[in-house]
Each structure stands twice: as structure tokens, then as C-alpha cells.
Amino acid sequence: MKVKLRNPDRVVDVSGPSDVVSLLRRLEIVPEAVLVIRDHTLLTRDEALSQEDELEIRPVLSGGSR
Amino acid sequence: MRCKVCLEHAVVDIRRHNAAFCGPHLLDHIRNQVARAIKEFKMFGHDDRLLVAASGGKDSLALWDILLALGYDATGFYLSLGIGGYSSRSRKAAEDFAASRGAKLIVRSLEDEHGYTVPELAQLTGRVPCSGCGLNKRYEFNRAALEEGFDVLVTGHNLDDEVATLFGNVLHWNIDMLGRQAPVLEERVLGGDAGTPPALVRKVKPLVRVAERESAAYALVAGIDYIVEECPMVDGNTQHLYKEAITLIEESSPGTKHQMYFGFLKRAAHHFADQQDDAVVVACTNCGAPTVAGGPADPVCSFCKTKALAHHRRDQGVTPRRPARRRRSR
Lengths: 66, 330
What we know:
The complex is a heterodimer. Chain A is mostly beta strands. Chain A is 11% helix and 32% strand.
């Protein structure tokens, strides 16, 4: 599957994970820190994935001045 | 997973609430959390004119959307910080959102108002960019709210923001900052005289019951095209570092963020509040804006001191230094 990552934007190929939480574990990403998106739709962490999926993993933590 | 409300297919899981929601019920859930915070902390009413600090990011645009959906009189305020393409794109996000909702957006820029951008300010003064940025935003947000006749300044600080700040203030025992950390900062008048016009407008944070991930999910489900990219000046920001640490804990123990922040408000905040209440607000002798009296007979506010330093160094032809950079946090 193709996975778009942010900051900076890039696309990586990942094979194997069968659901969202496995994918995030493979990429060493904390689930609480991101949203996973497929076809403009959010996915819960138990959502099944297929090798043909094109996904975006979008970070949600923003920082900076207060 | 199934939606907690309608049992349809869920799109978001919120582990701290032991719940998952479909798109429409996520929007309802988040709006209810905001409405609850507004009521619980007596933030404002439907007769108040609200100025929403709109950065173009997920939190401020989601909050603005929620306030409009709840029927409040909410105008946006975008302050251009002059951070290259990032500022152009964030401004467009704010303008596009306002146009899509038929809402009014006030736009100002630091360069037009004060003659410098955030990167230039950092280079000229040697201040960490986020520090100078925050100082200027607080000053300009308050000035705009007063000049444009708004009753309340609304910011998009979410639960993660508040927990990260609390975490940092406890790590360093910033007692005065702990005294100031609250979902509502009441308006202040010069000299503390009741009956005079406010010098510091009332500031509120209606997203304190909404975690950062929930705010982002709301924006995405609501079709808000917010700016996803991170500010290029934020590398190594300690607030971001604290958020990463807290998120790791939250992942292992859902609900920790909520317990830390609301536990502080309920059980500890009152221990620090007295110090802040004693501070008297006086007029800056340079710009007239409010500043806390610190003892000198001729007080000048931090904003004016920083602005003067930047212009002084530029007038002297001082070669700008690169802004302080710390380690990249991820």
C-alpha cells in the first residue's frame, strides 16, 4: 500500500499490515498522535487494510507560540 | 467499530471516552463538548460579539465552525506573521473558510502594523521565534478586539495545548503562570478601577474539553480545508516536545490528559490564583497598551521593548543573527 506522510510530505510503500494499528506500529507512529485517512474518510484503528489502499497519515500535534 | 450513538460504521475512535462515532455524530459530540465548556466556565452568551483568533489551522477553524453552528456572533481575525509561503497558505485557508461560511474575517499583518515579520524579529532580537511570535500575537489580538469593539477574544487552545502548558509550568514551577492558567481570563481595566473600559479584553478557550486529535477529526469530517503543514519556525519548540511526551502517556493510559488538566482546575488552581489577582494593570508609557505594573515608575510593555530593540538594531545596521534553533523534536 502507498502511505502519504506529512511534514515533510512524502509517500512510502508498505506491505504487510492488515489493519490500521498494525500499520502505525510498523511505522513506529503513536496512534494518538495521528489521523489515518483513506479516500477522504477517517479510519478507526481496527479498520482492515488491503495492499491496494492509498492512505494518508496526518499528524495532529501542532506546536509553537501561545 | 460502531458508532456509539447510531451503531453505524464509525470513523473515529475516542478511547478516553471509550467511544467511537460516525461522521455526523462526531460533529454532534464535539459541538456538545464545546457547548458544555462555554456553559461550565460561563464564557459568553449569544449577545456577545466574539473575535476568533483564526490562524488557518485545524483548531481555530474548527472552533469558528462550531461557534457559528451553535449560533454565536463570531468574527475571525487573521494576523499575518510574514513567514513566507506558510503565511500565504494559512491566510488563504482562513479566507476560504470565511467565504465558505459567509463569515466576516478581519486581516492584519505584523509587517504593515509594526514593520517586521516574525523571522526578522527573531533575527534582529535573538529571541526564539515562537517567543516573539506569541508576544506579538497576544498584543495584536487584544488590540484588534478593543479597536473593533468585540466583547470576547476566543482562541483555539485545545486540551493538549493546556496540558502541555501545565506540564511545562509544573516542570519549571512557574508559579505566576500557573496562576494565570484558566479557560477564562477575565477582562482587566487600567489601574484596577471598576467602571472604566477594559484594557485587556476577556479571553476564553472553548476547546479545553476537546483533544487535539478530536479537533483535527472534526475539521476533516466538517470539510474544513485547514493548513496541515507545520510552521517552519517551530522546530525544537518545547511545547511540541511536551505534547509528544503527554501523547505517549495518553496512548498507554487514555484519559490522563483530561485528568491532569481538570484535576488541576478543580484541586490546585486556586492555590496559585491569588498572586495573579493582585497584579495591577497600568498603561504602557510608550503605546498606552495595558501592562502589569512591576515596580518601575515609568513602565514600558514587553511588546514595546521588543519592537524598539528590533528597530534599533535594524537602524544601526546590525547584521541579523539567525534565530535560535534547537533540536528537531521528531
